[in-house]
Every structure is written in structure tokens, then in C-alpha cells.
Amino acid sequence: MAVEVLDSDGIRRALTRIAHEIVERNDGVKGLALVGIHTCGVPLARRIAEAIARIEGTEPPVGAIDITLYRDDAGRLGATAHMEPSDIPFDLQERKVVLVDDVLYTGRTIRAALDALIDFGRPAAVQLAVLIDRGHRELPIRADYVGKNVPTSRSQKVRVELGEHGERDAVWIEEAANGTR
Amino acid sequence: MALGNRHLLGLEGVSAEDITVLLDTAESLVEVSRREVKKLPALRGKTVINFFVENSTRTRTSFEIAAKRLSADAISISSSSSSMAKGETFEDTARNLAAMSPDCIVVRHPASGAARFLAGVVDCSIINAGDGSHEHPTQALLDLLTIRQRKKCAWKDLVVTIVGDIVHSRVARSNLFGLRTLGATVRLAGPPTLLPEEFREFGAELYYDIGSAVQDADVIMMLRIQHERMASNYFPTLNEYARYFCLNAEKVARAKPDVIILHPGPINRGIEISSEVADGPYSVIMSQVANGVALRMALLYQLIIPGADGIRGSALVEPAVTAAPGRARIE
Amino acid sequence: MTTRNQRNTAPPALLVRGGHLVDPVSGRDGLFDVLIEHGRVVGVGSPGSLDPAQLAMPGMGSDVPVIDARGLIVAPGFVDMHVHLREPGYEYKETIETGTRAAVAGGVTSVACMANTDPVNDNASVTKYIIDKGAEAGYANVYPIGAVSVGLKGERMAEFGKMVEAGIVAVSDDGMPVADSSLMRRALEYARMFDIPVIVHEEDPGLCCGAVMNEGTVSVRLGLRGMPSAGESVMVARDIELARATRGRLHIAHISCAEAVEMVRRAKAEGLAVTAEAAPHHFILEESAVDGYNTNAKMKPPLRTARDVEAVRQGLADGTIDAIATDHAPHHRDEKVCEFDKAAFGILGLETMLPLSLELVRAGYLSMTRLIDALAPAPSRILGIERGTLEPGAVADLVLFDPEREWTLTAATMVSKSRNTPFDGWKMKGRVVRTLVGGVTVWEHTE
Ligand SMILES: [Zn+2]
What we know:
The complex is a heterotrimer of chains A (181), B (331) and C (447). Chain A is an alpha/beta fold and 181 residues long. Chain A has four helices and eight strands; from the N terminus they run E-H-E-H-E-H-E-H-E-E-E-E. Chain B has 331 residues and is an alpha/beta fold. Chain B has helices at residues 16-29, 57-69, 90-98, 114-121, 137-150, 170-182, 210-214, 228-231, 238-245, 249-252, 275-278, 288-304, and strands spanning 47-52, 73-78, 104-109, 125-131, 159-163, 185-189, 205-207, 219-222, 260-262. Chain C has two domains: 2-74 and 394-444, Urease, subunit C, domain 1, CATH 2.30.40; 77-383, Metal-dependent hydrolases (TIM Barrel), CATH 3.20.20. Chain C is 27% helix and 21% strand. Chain C contains twelve helices and 18 strands. In chain C, strands 1, 2, 3, 4, 5, 16, 17 and 18 form an eight-stranded mixed β-sheet that branches. In chain C, strands 9-10-13-14-15 form a five-stranded parallel β-sheet. Chain C has a three-stranded parallel β-sheet with strand order 6-7-8, sandwiched between helices. The relative contact order of chain C is 0.17. The chains are: A alpha/beta (181), B alpha/beta (331), C alpha/beta (447). Chains in contact: A-B, B-C.
């Protein structure tokens, strides 16, 4: 049984609001960069960058990181056949970086992403933008920009579908036997 | 999980899916060598032993860097520093290695089957870094990665010609098995003394004339020829060998215009490859180093981290009690 | 399982009753009772005709012990003419005692042992030592084979005469090929004076140099150096020509390839004094047994192809190959649990000889009589020893076996001192139930 919590309009509005908040908080686009976390964070980062461009007339650079080899639970989750190259096509030095991911849950993905990011250089500041915050944090991590807070139980699963992956935009909550995202 | 240890003992029997996963993973790791901090925590707390009973600085260094970039503890033991020289059996040495509780042993050994033997004695993943004349799967995977980066067509449309001392070459064997599994056409060329007819049974085409062997080839792989083979009368002289099998400009001209030439080791100029060809635009020898580290990182990660989604590795087939291997058909 | 050796005195009389006797020499193949007195067969008769109660034997009456052989085949004890007992010198692999005990466990009552011991059996004192040790052990009869050349070096001929006087039954440099054609010629000629065969291990040293298995698809795939069939057949061709030239008696050991079998077939048709033996592994296993670098499938000559296996089976069927001999070659674990290139050549044979050979009967290659002929009378004839029959007057070496009994071979529980068998875990069919040497039970299998 799945319940839709955001449709495509909802997602578009949420991302536009996040774009506004980013611009406002960072006084514009100067020194700003977005880094999406593979897989869903990357198209979201691109969409936010496009939204910022519409607001400010300048599009911040967008990078991508794969955090598979940084996860502290790699041994538990096991090796994956699907890994993407990380690509940070700009110097991180003195940058204000907004990490972008689809769902914030335990915080472990973000911790791994911070580790990965630091290996590419030393940013001036790192902020976090997520489309969904579903709670249940296991680490002291919080998002600076949240599209929508969605209270969930651990047994539930949050599914994000994006047009870039050949589906229509939507966010679903479903009951799943194994409750991790 | 009942996966047991996963090994890479050879490319024979490894599925196209597994090879592709390894190449994909390697591809996504190539950028690591361009980072400011070239280290990933994936194998933190894991131990990788590089056990080299036969010298090979290049392969060993590549594995060492790969293990260290994944934050594994990498220990290198070469034949001079191990006690094999003092008459200890291979099994004893293996058990001593096992006492270090490694998660993976990378082994290079002059005896064919040594990696397989180790896999039967030690309870961890084994990577064959070259065993006798048998296989050298990581070199072949590296060659496959290089070919895939340069050639955008499907494997089944590729013609790969391997030239030289085929029968003694573990690189040729691994490449043959891997390329055939992926669907490429493999041509083997060399004098009949170094190219037994049996290779046909593994799906290769055999040539004694290098000219026709490289006709319209996409990739030419030149094997290093050992001087010792002359003493065993595999061919009369290096000079005569070169007369028939040296890759010169005239022969390269028969291959596809965008042909690439791979060579696994130091070139004997004028013997395997003429200088004009070696210094020409086709050679991709140098670009293989970065690929080598990425490939070996991918392999270490895929073998050591147990995952249902990862590769299966080449299974260690335990002799079945009733299967009676090698039993001739009767009645 | 129990064994008793010959030091236990033979009962003055013994009746083996109700078994199916297969005695190729007499041509008997059916239900017969066998009466033994003082270690020799004294009577063979239809069931019941030798009932002890009716025997006119003074002082015996109905006290004659009876062995119930119902449901079993009774045959002359097997003669394995190619065994490495390893003593003297390699007692860590096998001793004359453990080897002959393994023999009787396999139904083998006589073994001919090869000369590649340390010291080499190239002189009468070593021959005598082996014979004494064999008698002392008291299991199977031990017939030593002397070396062709001193120290198996292939240079100077050993003292055939003195060794014959001490008890050798043949000469062989087995393990080492006789590379020097002139030495081979002289050995064949000189051996005629003693009417002993020269047993040859056919391996061209140049063609087989450094090789560890058969040359073919499997060796190419595994990256192992192969011995071509020609490495065997060129030597067989040479030695047949030398046998023709010298009129000497040539015996080809462990023949393994189709070409060699065909050469022996032609030589026999021409009436040359050429005989041959085959080992069970060469008619049961193919080269693919080496897969996985199985060192227990490493031997000389190597396991070959399906075509060669078929040729060996046909050779045994038509008598081209006279005898089955195991080339029993015990090796210590450390000599087999190692790199394939370094592993020793050879496998155990004595305890698996019968069930593996019975496969050829079940598959229709051999009649039971022909099988028993290959296992006992044929090798006895080649070696010129008075064994291999249960005719009245013959020494009472016999084996009782159940050709249908199924069992599983476990290397760990084998009688031999070594464990190097490729048949570990195999389901076997055909079980030796009792072995008698000189009328004494030296092996009895109890479930
Ligand atoms: Zn031999």
C-alpha cells in the first residue's frame, strides 16, 4: 500500500522554495556550488541550480559524488554493482557547498557524503538540502533546507521517482518489510 | 550469508555480467587518482596480503596502491622475505599467511594452479596475480577496460588479435577467456610451436601469418617473447622470429585505421614491435597504469565486501563426492 | 576387518564351499568346492562332492574347517606385477609390511615390486633384503624386480644373474625410461639367458621433459606442460623393434595411449615376445581428472583422452594387453598437497584394483574369466611364477569377492600407509571378502 505525499507540482514548488532560501541565506550565487549525492541527489541538485538561475540569472556549478565506498555500513549492505564516478568540476576551496539528497533519514549517507566531499578539497561551508526529511536520525545531522517534513515509522519506505529516471515526478510512502530506504 | 569466500582465480568461467560489473566499478573509480585525498574508507580495518613468490614490481605496486586507496592494511611478502626459500612447503607458508587473518591474499606464483591451491588452504578471498602459464586475470581485465574505453562498439563487433608466445602466456589465456565470454572475436597468431591447435577449442581462430591475423583488427595485443624459448627450439633465432612476427608499419596498415596496440611489458624493440610502431599513435601502453589501480580497487572492493548485488567471483568448485571428476564414460 | 598373517599356521585342511569358482587356467567357471591341504589345493569338485564328512582323510573327519563362499566368486589370488613398495629407503611412504597388507586387502596375493628404492634394487643383497622382509611381513608374496642399470642411471647394466639367483623375476628401470637404445638392446639380449622379461616404462625423455600431465586440451587450458602420446609411442616403437632384433622378452608397463596399444597388437600378430599391462586408472580416468590441479590425478604415464581410454579397454578385451597391474605408487601427503608442478607422480592402486576392473566386466568389455585371467594367470605367465591358478596341486592363494557389493572408498581408512588416491569418496562396486595366501586367511572383511 503506497500513499503519495508529493506530486510533480509539489516537488517543483518545494525545489523552487529551497532555491529561494539558498539564495537568500547565501546573499546570491557568488561562491556557491551544489553537489548532488548519487543517485537521486544529482538531478535534484541540477533542478535547484536551474531554479536559482531563474531567480538570479546565474547558475551555480553542480557536482556529483558517489558515497558507496564511504558508507560505514558497507559491510552490512554489501558490495553493489552500481557505482557512479564522482565528478566535482570546480575547486572546492572557499566555496559554499550545498549538498543535495532526496531523503534525509538516519544521517549516515550525509556523514559519508561529508567525508567524500572533504577528500576533494576544503570548502568554506557545507549546507544540506533535502527533498524529504523523514526523521529517525542516528547522527547529529540536520538539514538547512527541507522540501517537506514527512513523519514516518521505521518500517515504512520512502520512494522518490524523478522524471530524469524515466518516471513521473512523485514521492511515495509505502509499507515495506525491510524498512531502510 | 552462505556466499563463502569469493575469489578471482582466472577469467575462465567468470560470467559476462561479473566482468561488466568489475569494469563499470573500475570506470567509476578512475577519477579517484585525480582527487586531492586519494583515499576511500571502504576497506578500513581489512587486511590485504600481497604474496609474491615471483617478482613483479609493477603488478605488486598496483595492488598495493589499490589496497591503500581503499584504506585496507596492505602487507607485501615477496619470495625473498618469505620462508619459502628455506624449504618450507607452499602449504606451510599459506597457513602462516592465514595466521595474519587476511581478508584477501593477492598471489603471484611461478606454478600454474598456485592461486587455486591457496584458495583451498586459506579461508579468505584469493586474487590470482599470475600463476605460471595459467592465468593473469587482473592484467586481462585491465586490457578489457582499456579496450572498452577506446572502442565504443559492442564486444561482439570487435576483432582482437593476440600475437606471440601464446602457449606460455597467462595474459593470452586470460584475455582469450574474457574476450570470448564477452563475445569478441579472438585471433591468435604465432609459430605452431607456440600455438597448439587445442586453442581452437576455446573459441579462438589460429593464424601462423601475422599479416592475415591483423587484417581489419580493432585491437592488437603483442606478447613478450622470452629468450629462453629459443634454447628449447620453439623457434630457431629471435632474428627469424622477428622476420615473421614483428609488428611493423606495413602489417599495422592492414588493421583497422583506429587500431590500438597493447603490450603487457617492456618491449623488445625490433623483435615484437618495430620502433616506428612502438612510437606511433596506436600504442596505449602508458595509459594502462591508472586503469590498473582503479581496476584492482574495484576488484578488492567487490571481492572483500560480501554483497548480493556484487559479483559472484570465480567459484571454487569443491570436488563433489559422487561426481567422480575425470571418470571416463563406460558402457 | 581382521587380518592374520602367515605366521599363523595353516590348518592342515580347509574347505571353501559353495562359491562360484573362476579359474581361467583350468577353464572352470561355475559352482565348485575347493579343498586345501597344507597350503595347496588338493581337490576341486562340484558342490557337496568334497563334503568333509565323506572325505577319507584319516584323523580329520568332519572337523575340517569350512569357509562359506556362497554368493561369492572364488578366484586365484591376484598378481599385481607393478607395485612400488618403497622399502628400503622410503619407508615414510610405504613399507613392505604396509604395502603387502594393502595388497591382500585388495585381493592381491602376489606383488612384483619395482627397483626404484634407496638403495636401488640393483644387486643381490637388496633383492634378498626385500624377499626376507616380505616373508617376515607374511601377507602377500613378494617378487622383486631388479634394476636394468646400476642406480637406475641408464649407464651400466646391473648384475641380472646374481639378482635372478637371489630371486628377481624381471628387470626394469621403472620410473626412469631407458633412454640409451644400446643399453636397451643389450638388456633384452642378456635377459634371454635367464628367460626374464625386461619391463619398460616408456617415456621419451626429450618429449616429456618437465611435463606434468597429458598434452592436450586440458594441459593447454590449465597452463601445464604436457607429455604428448608420442612421448610414449615412439619408445614403444623403438623397443618393439629391439625386441624383434634381439628376440628378447619385452613387457610394456602401464600402457596408456591408443597408438602404443595398436603397436603392441601388431607386434603380437607378428609373433614377437611382447606383452603389456594396463593400470586401472588408465581405463577408468581421463585427463580431465586433473582439473582443479588435482595432484592425485598426476602420474606417469599421464591420464589421457577418452579415445585412449577406449583403446586400453579394447586392448584388454582382445588380449593385446595381457595383464592389469596397478603401478601402486604411495606418496606422503606433503608430496601431493603442494603446487601441481612440484607434486610427485603416482597413485595408490592395490586396494581399488578389483572394483575398478570389475567396471569393465559390467560394461561388457571383459568376461569375468578374461578379467580374472588379466588379474592372475597372465601376470604369472609373464613373470614365470607358479601362481594364478587353483588347479589341484597349486599353491592355495585365493581371493573370495562379492562382485555386487557396494561400498564407498574413504582414503583416510585405507590400509596403505599413504592416502594418494583420486578415488576418495567414490562409490565402488565389488568387495574383497577374504584373501588366503598359502591356505591361510590373511585378510577378512567384515561389515
Ligand atoms: Zn613406470
